[in-house]
Amino acid sequence: MVSLLLVAGVAVAAFVGFNIGGSSTGVAFGPAVGSGSVSKTGAAALMTGFAVLGGANSGTNVIETMGGRIVPSDQFTLAASVAVLFFVGLALLVSNLFGVPASTSMTAVGAIAGLGVATGSIDWEVMGRIVTWWLVAPITAFWLCAVIGRYLFPHLEARFTLESPGEETTLRERFGAVLVVVIGCYMAYAAGASNVANAVGPLYGGRVLGDAFLPYVGLAGVAIGVGAFTIARRTLDTVGNDLTDLPILAALIVEVVSASIITGLSEIGIPASLAVSATMCIVGLGWGRATRTTKLADAAAEAVAGPPEASEGEAGGVTVDAIADGDEPETPEPDEVAKIGEEDPDEVTAADLFDPAATGRVVMLWILTPSISALASYLVFRYLPVV
């Protein structure tokens, strides 16, 4: 019976890692594959290697947190570990069904918290610190990218436009190709640091494969690699070829900021969601870019006095008389960057860059999935003879 449970535990952990490899590879290397900088096979190999590297370094702190700090490690019997991993796998299924990047980290912590509350063994101080960072990390991601989008993105876009390398590549194109691959590797490292624990944290808590980290990281790494070489190919197609609303430069900014936040949290042992941080980076970048059409002073004055009425003969700041006389509106040179408040609202619209309704649905599911996981885990461990 114990050996059967062990096989089940390893299988469920491998399933979780497999799905992590499938989803995270597209996020990390979608821009690189889409721009032709690396092949799908190359992306899968890099994803596997750097995810293992992240899990073996920064990820061990997260494994310890999920395998013995939220609840004592002696609570992770083999049956309990299998049950917790089942909830993580269920979260992946729900996220795939709804098409929302649900957080496996948050769901895994929720399941472990449910175990701790049911057995009266949860460490509320550790749990409180984790939840605090869950609130701080996405807010930080949003505002960092909002500032970049409002003040820096147009300047970066004017100077560092990244293009797909052609047959006769220029130095700029080669630099862009190398850059997207390097940042993809960094994203893969962060994915390993945060997600390896989701696959094997409960098993490490029960020390079912021994006390060393290597077998657990190896198990997760192999599973992530299998996912990267198989189901990730479709994800790479989706992310790499459907980036019309998220240019390569914007994707790289999102990757750098979100990966840095998650790597930093992993170093201090906080299990946090790469998907949540990346999504909030996208929202923040879009919102920041959309707000370039208005100066802060003008927005404040309009809020107090109301919107100014258009004077007779004016249309969007260009007079009808001027158009009638044949005077065209001044168009900035291609390399010029419009100042804040002078952006063309028809070119930079909030509707294209930021969707509050969609963001609200995503945030609701982020809250819902770990809550359901925690409640289901509590009921299972409280009323069924699992532990």
UniProtKB/TrEMBL annotation:
Protein's job: Potential transporter for phosphate.
Keyword Iron-sulfur: no
Source species: Halosimplex litoreum
Keyword set includes Calcium: no
Coiled-coil residue windows: none
Subcellular location, record wording: Membrane
Protein family membership: Belongs to the inorganic phosphate transporter (PiT) (TC 2.A.20) family.
GO cellular component, one term: membrane
PANTHER family registered for this protein in UniProt: PHOSPHATE TRANSPORTER
Protein name as it appears in the record: Phosphate transporter
GO terms for biological process, alphabetical: phosphate ion transmembrane transport
Transmembrane portions of the chain: 44-64, 76-98, 131-153, 174-192, 212-231, 243-262, 268-287, 362-381
Pfam families cross-referenced by the UniProt entry: PHO4
Keywords in alphabetical order: Membrane, Phosphate transport, Transmembrane, Transmembrane helix, Transport
An MF annotation (GO) of this entry: phosphate transmembrane transporter activity
InterPro entries in UniProt: Phos_transporter
